[in-house]
Amino acid sequence: MKTSVLKIFSIAFILVLLTGCVNQKEKQQKRIDGDHARIITTSAACADIMDKLDVDLVAIAESQLQPPPERYKNLPTIGMAMSPDMEKISSMNPDYVFSPASLMPDLLPKYQAAGIHFGFVNLSNVPGMYRSIEDLGRLLNREKEAEVLVKDYEDFMKDFKSRNKGPAPRVLILMGLPGSYVVATDKSYVGSLVKLAGGENVYPDEDQQFLTVNTEDMLEKDPDIILRTAHAMPEKVHEMFQDEFKTNDVWKHFRAVKEDKVFDLNTKLFGMSANFSYKEALGDLEKVFYGQGN
Questions:
Q1: Angle between helices 126-139 and 44-52 (to 10 degrees)
Q2: Which of 80, 221, 229, 253 shows the smallest number of beta carbons within 10 Å?
Q3: What is the CATH number of the domain that holds 175?
Q4: DSSP bridge partners of 31
């Protein structure tokens, strides 16, 4: 049985979700060879990062929304991201298991109880994802691959910002579930994309990713633009939003509604976790915010 101590490697912030990747290892961080290590990822986004770093895996999570990279398509699965099979994971004797940091409250005690070495990857925003990539590069002997990815991100953002210097639109972001919706803040992945694109979230919030807010309060914020996306079941959520905006009279008083500035986002690009589709997502926001883009 492995005993473990939680450590944060690379960025010594107290707030875990603001760091890159959180590493758990016995007493000290141990660099391992990505060519021979037994590694498991418990989310599609984490698997994509490993693919970009040219790291082989021994198992991946099941995903109904996103197929795995080609190199991993025949690997065994260990359950869904939110409830991986700990017994199956332990039986594979992994050197590391990597999961999204958003699931740390649920998964940390399970990993500790099973004596599993783990890492939590920051997927709440794009900059955090790339800090995690740098950390993983150092941990897995993939510094060169990580450096290439980070440089590509920095070059892309430099070009993106040089094209878009107009006034920042004030944005209300609605994240829907069948039958309900919440407001997404800057702490959410969608909110972080809006911020990267130059938008100003009318509900920035410094602590929570999502807020429950009444429509009267939203009306007082007077957003220039309203963005809508879905956490799951996008077709049903789209129908819900259509019905909500038709039957709830308060929406007709929003300036954004009057000016036809309500946009439904592509759920595959604007989901819950940062991923390498952020370029396409920012391209969509570029068109909405500035009337341009590819």
A1: 60
A2: 253
A3: 3.40.50.1980
A4: none
Task: Summarize the confidence of residues 78-87 as an average pLDDT.
Answer: 92
Number of neighbouring beta carbons within 10 Å of residue 30: 12
Q: Which domain does 212 fall in, by range?
A: 164-290
Mark whether 169 and 275 lie in a shared domain: yes
Of the candidates 160, 187, 185, the residue with the CA atom closest to the CA atom of residue 173: 185
Cβ neighbours, 10 Å, residue 92: 14
> From the CB of residue 114, how many other CB atoms can be counted at a distance below 10 Å?
15
Q: What is the average pLDDT across 178-187?
A: 91
Q: Residue 165's pLDDT band (boundaries 50, 70, 90)?
A: confident
Distance CA(123)–CA(120), nearest Å, equals 9
- Domain endpoint, select from 112, 134, 157: 157
Classify residue 268 as left (phi > 0), alpha (psi -120 to 50) or beta. Answer: alpha
Q: What is the pTM of this model?
A: 0.84
